C-alpha cells in the first residue's frame, strides 16, 4: 500500500503536467469530439493502455523511468516516502538515494539552512525526528545538570539519557554536553553539524549557538592520569571497569574520581562515597 501511495503520488503529478501541456494544443470546441472518439475506440485500444496510461500499479511506465521526472516527483516526498520509493526498482533507488535529495528531505521539516558533514551510517537518514538534533553546550565552572535543564527548559533525565550519563557526576569529566531541543523553531535558518559524540556514543546533528565546532580538548590532564601512564591500555581499562562497577556510574565519572585521587582506586572510592554522603545530607537526591 505504501508503494501504491507513491505511485499514485507520482501519477498525479505527471498527469497534472500532461494536462497543463495538452491545454495548449486543444480548443474548447474539440473537447466533445475527442471524448466521442475515445469512447468509440475504447475497445480497440485496451492492449495499449499500459503504455499510454499511468497506473498506480504500473512502475514500468516510460515517464517513471526518466531520472529528471523522478527527481521532480521525489523532491516533494518525505524521508520515509523516499525510503519506500527506493525499494520499487533500481532506477527509482538510484534517484531516491541521491545525496542532495536525501539531505533536502531531511532538513525541510525543520527549515534548516545548511547540514554539514556526512553520517557514518546511512541509517542516520531514516528518521528526521527532533531527537536527531541537539545543542552543544560547552561546560563552564558552576554548571550542573539541573542548572542546564532549567536554562534550556528540558528535563534532567532527558539530558542524562542523551549523553549516556548514569549520574550527575559525569559532567565533570566532559568538556561539553548535548542538550535536547525543546523548541523546534530554534533550528530554523541554522547550520547543523553531523557528529558522533564520544561520550554519548550516538550520531546527531549538533547545533552550536555560539560559533561553530572547536577542536576537541584533551580531557582532564591531572597527576592521576600521569600516575596511570605506567599501566598498559588493558590495565587501565580493567581499572576503570572495576571502579565503574563498584560505583555504579559511567566511565567518565569513574575516570574523574580516579584522576582526582591521583590514580589510587581506594581514594577514588572514598571521594565518591564522601560526595554521595554530602548529597544525601543536602537533600539533592
TrEMBL record:
Superkingdom of this protein's organism: Eukaryota
Database matches in Gene3D superfamilies: 1.20.1280.50, LysM domain
Residues of the signal peptide: none
LysM domain sequence ranges: 135-179
InterPro entries tied to this protein: F-box-like_dom_sf, F-box_dom, LysM, LYSM1-4, LysM_dom_sf
PANTHER family: LD22649P (PTHR20932:SF8), LYSM AND PUTATIVE PEPTIDOGLYCAN-BINDING DOMAIN-CONTAINING PROTEIN (PTHR20932)
Protein name in UniProt: F-box protein
Organism whose genome encodes this protein: Noccaea caerulescens (Alpine penny-cress)
Amino acid at each position: 500500500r505504501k508503494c501504491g501511495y507513491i505511485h499514485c503520488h507520482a501519477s498525479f503529478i505527471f498527469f497534472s503536467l500532461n494536462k497543463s501541456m495538452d491545454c495548449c494544443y486543444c480548443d474548447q470546441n474539440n473537447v466533445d469530439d475527442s471524448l466521442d472518439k475515445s469512447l468509440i475506440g475504447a475497445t480497440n485500444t485496451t492492449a495499449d493502455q499500459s503504455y499510454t496510461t499511468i497506473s498506480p500499479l504500473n512502475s514500468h511506465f516510460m515517464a517513471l523511468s526518466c531520472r529528471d521526472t523522478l527527481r521532480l516527483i521525489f523532491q516533494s516526498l518525505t524521508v520515509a516516502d523516499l525510503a519506500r520509493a527506493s525499494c520499487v526498482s533500481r532506477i527509482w533507488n538510484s534517484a531516491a538515494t541521491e545525496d542532495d535529495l536525501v539531505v533536502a528531505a531531511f532538513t525541510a521539516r525543520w527549515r534548516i539552512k545548511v547540514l554539514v558533514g556526512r553520517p557514518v551510517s546511512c541509517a542516520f537518514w531514516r528518521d528526521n525526528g527532533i531527537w536527531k538534533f541537539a545543542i552543544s553546550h560547552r561546560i563552564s565552572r558552576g554548571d550542573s545538570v539541573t542548572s542546564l535543564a532549567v536554562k534550556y527548559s528540558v528535563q534532567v533525565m532527558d539530558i542524562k539519557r542523551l549523553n549516556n550519563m548514569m549520574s550527575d557526576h559525569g559532567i565533570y569529566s566532559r568538556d561539553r554536553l548535548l542538550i535536547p531541543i525543546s523548541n523546534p523553531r530554534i533550528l530554523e535558518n541554522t547550520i547543523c553539524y553531523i557528529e558522533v559524540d564520544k561520550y554519548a556514543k550516538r550520531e546527531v546533528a549538533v547545533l552550536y549557538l555560539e560559533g561553530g565546532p572547536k577542536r576537541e580538548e584533551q580531557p582532564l590532564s591531572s597527576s592521576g592520569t600521569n600516575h596511570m601512564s605506567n599501566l598498559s591500555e588493558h590495565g587501565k581499562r580493567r581499572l576503570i571497569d572495576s571502579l565503574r562497577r563498584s560505583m555504579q556510574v559511567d566511565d567518565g565519572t569513574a575516570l574523574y574520581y580516579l584522576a582526582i585521587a591521583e590514580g589510587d582506586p581506594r581514594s577514588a572510592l572514598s571521594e565518591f562515597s564522601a560526595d554521595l554522603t554530602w548529597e544525601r545530607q543536602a537533600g539533592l537526591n
